[in-house]
Amino acid sequence: MNATSMAPAPLSSNELLDRLADAYNDLTPQVRQAARHMLDRPEQVAVLSMRQLAEAAGVKPNTLVRLARAVGFDGYDDLRDPFRHEVTAPGTSFPDKARWLQTLAGAEHHGDLLADLASSNLGIVEQVFEDLDTVELQTVADTILAAPRTGVFGVGALLPLARHFCYVGSMAVPGLWALPTNEGLPIDDIGRMGAGDVLIAMTFAPYRTEIVEATRLARARDITVVTVTDSRTAPPALDADHVFTTPAETPLFFASVLGVVALLETLLAFMVADSRTEAAEAIDQFHQHRRAAGVYVEE
Asked: What is the spatial distance between Cα 289 and Cα 66, in angstroms, rounded to a whole number?
């Protein structure tokens, strides 16, 4: 077999970002600052020059060259190539988005605010689906299906999303639990979990201490850790087996959870799809029991 046939397949941008995240803690401070910006704003890599990206990251252009070499590339252009390739590949978008936003902005009252919110919210959801790695999401779905227990942990605005995920998911899939259970501490629940179980931990900046502690304990107990957060350099992401990032910034004074909702609903869809007939039968039985008990109003 010749050398050409043995050449490794080119990295995807997601694989390259994983490589950056794995190397993050070993980088020098300036190179780490460049890596953090690239991990948080990967969409800039393809469209900005090296000098522009360096300025956006607050580092010198040569720092990007050092970053590329630190993760195994000969130079910055080699690191940038996967991002440029994916930008030029065919994709999808909202074709009428611009015209709709212009109509909203022309409204007499609060039109600009409404346009800003619409643009922000549509952008968040669109970015989630653009960034999702289908293979990794399917891997996580199948891991949850095979796990005896999956704990889902979020605090603040993410707590009701954790409960909703478990409520809806448990119609079809057993073993889903929103943490903490029984009014205890999350680490108490994780202390009863072990190898083969899954922890889904969700947090945005400023990152909550209890989430970080939970992911570290889960990692120590050989639990598969799935982190949903806003940055690949978030402390709980560094301890995770799988990381999904969702944008959270909006014109408002709080982080948006729309991206998390989109991600969790997609994960549920993958779980049901891969569970074959069992999930459909479980959902049907769930509603049959409720109808028999008179839970629903008959129309």
From this structure: 62
- The 10s digit of each residue's pLDDT in 68-80 is 999 999 999 899 8
Domain region containing 49:
13-88
pTM for this structure?
Answer: 0.68
CA–CA dist 16, 232 (Å, integer): 12
Chain center to CA of 50:
27
- C-beta of residue 228 within 8 angstroms of C-beta of residue 260: yes
Contact 246, 260 (CB under 8 A): yes
Residues ≥6 apart with Cβ < 8 Å to 13: 42, 45, 82, 83, 86
CA distances from 44 to 39, 53, 80, 191 (A): 10, 7, 10, 41
Average pLDDT over residues 266-294: 77
125 lies in some domain: no
Residue 105 included in any domain: no
What is the per-residue pLDDT across 182-201, written as a single tens digit (0 to 9) for each?
A: 878 888 999 999 999 999 99
Q: Does residue 144 share a domain with residue 74?
A: no
> Hey, how many other C-beta atoms are within 10 angstroms of the C-beta on 184?
11
